[in-house]
Amino acid sequence: MILYSYCLRYDSGAAPNPFWELCTLAICKPDIRRVANIGDWVVGLGSTNSPIGNIADCVVYAMQITDKMTLQEYDEYCRVHSPHKIPKSNSEIFEERVGDCIYDYSQGGQPVLRPGVHDISNQKGDLGGVNVLISQHFYYFGEKAVHLPASLTPIVHKTRKHKSIANEPYKDAFVTWIEKLGCTPNKVHGEPQLKKKFILEGDISNCRC
Questions:
Q1: N or C end of the chain: which has fewer CB within 10 A?
Q2: Residue 139, domain extent
Q3: What percent of the chain has pLDDT over 70?
Q4: Alpha carbon of 34 to those of 31, 95, 99, 134, 208: distances in Å?
C-alpha cells in the first residue's frame, strides 16, 4: 500500500468529488491518477491560504482506492450507474453542477468536454492522468478539516506535486489514526470550502486544481 499526500489548494467539491456515495478523483492530480492503484490511499491536505485560514496540517479528505478505471470507462459507468456525476451546469443543485465526469466519449475518437468545472485549458492535465480513482471507503471533511497529530505532520506537502515514497514510515499509522477518529466513513462531514463562493458568484467554470 502506498500513501499519496498533496496540498489541496482549491476544495471545490469537484476534485475530489465526494458526492453520491462515491469519492472520485477524475480530474486534476494527473501524476497520482496515472500511478495509484487499488488499495492505496490518497490524502488531500489543506492549504496555507484556504478560505478558512491556514489548514496546511489538516486533512481535507482521505480515500482508499477501491476501484480504478480509465476516463472512457468512467464515462460509460456514470451513464448507467452514477448519472449525477455527469455535470449539469444549470442545475440548482450544487452537487450536480460540480460533477467530475466532464469528458464525453460517446461520439468516438477524442472526448468532448462537457460544460462544467473545467475548460479547454485544463484538458491536457485532465486527460494526461488517464485514470479515475474511485473510493467506497473515504473520509471527506471539507471546511471541517481535521488536524493531523504531530506524529503524522511529516506527510504534509505544501508545494505542487505530491509525496509518496517519503510517506512510507507513516502510512500504517495514518490509516490507524483516521479509522479510529470515530468519523463515519463514506459521508460528507463538511461542505467544500469554495461552495459558498461558487454559489454567490454563480460561476463554477474553470475551477482550478
A1: N
A2: 3-70+128-201
A3: 96
A4: 5, 26, 21, 13, 19
